[in-house]
Amino acid sequence: MTATERFTGDANPYGGGDPYADYRTADFPFTGLVDLADRRLGAGVIAANDEFFAERENLLKPEPAEFDPERFGHKGKIMDGWETRRRRGASAAVPHPADEDHDWALVRLGAPGIVRGIVVDTAHFRGNYPQAVSVEAACVPGSPSPEELLAPEVKWTTLVPRTAVGGHAANGFVVAAEQRVTHLRVNQHPDGGIARLRVYGEVTPDPAWLAALGTFDLVALENGGTVEDASDRFYSPATNTIRPGRSRKMDDGWETRRRRDRGNDWIRYRLVEQAEIRAVEIDTAYLKGNSAGWASLWARDGESGDWTEVLPRTRLQPDTNHRFVLPEAVRATHIRIDIFPDGGISRLRLFGSPTEEGTARLTARHRELGG
What is the pLDDT, as a whole number, of residue 371? Predict the structure, then answer.
């Protein structure tokens, strides 16, 4: 099912100037969710049947595709995406590819989850994009090889049926399958190029893994934490604050515009499940002249519970990781960080473990989704 508009057919040939000037896109309803195929979460393109013109790894680059009209190599035009050679038929009498001929790439998601929407982006592929695409999904434990994923006993479920797409366009699809996914098979019919793949959804962690960890980061993206809302996303998304690892540059955190009123900025998070929080990290790495001046932390247990202050308003230092051991464990399902008056933080870590009730719900959900 297509999310909004359908983009089909060629785009105009590149005529110079801004290569994105005539790029076709739309507001998709799912792009506020986490990208399960984000390389920064550990996703990878582990195999492809053909990558003659451009390598498969380009599919998961986090930044938009670039276009250099002068960039050519020994095999032809070098594109910032995954591009296969032109398919041919079986003989001079049958020069065209058969209907079932197609190219494919296997994608390991960075975190297992439920897929809610997919964007197959053909940016800069104006006359060399696929005629159609399809996407299939599987849930396979461990770290299977490409050969194991392609074995006949692996069950693949169609998330996006074979659908015509357009060149130089963000082709978006809503996904309705309610199942846990670890790997995707992206097919282009019969051949061509795709610049980027985005797979938006909800992380569904393995309860057995979390139980083995004991104490872990309850709000981390890879563990199932999410950003529900934020007061300001002017310079960078609030989701950056729960990405893996420390920030490596200023725009790898959350930074707000400068306030000219007497208010403050904030982010509201949902934890992986009901849990007891025992320690907190608030990191302002690379935010030197624009870090938040102060921060406070509030907790809520349930969708409509009262907010309780967990960490009183505390002075933050620029480019510093601040650590706090809470005087007693705080039971919560949601956390809100308030910063004063504006600025930003790079990461928030909430260390603890799920309650018995939270663990039970996680386990039941995991079984329901086929994990």
Answer: 72
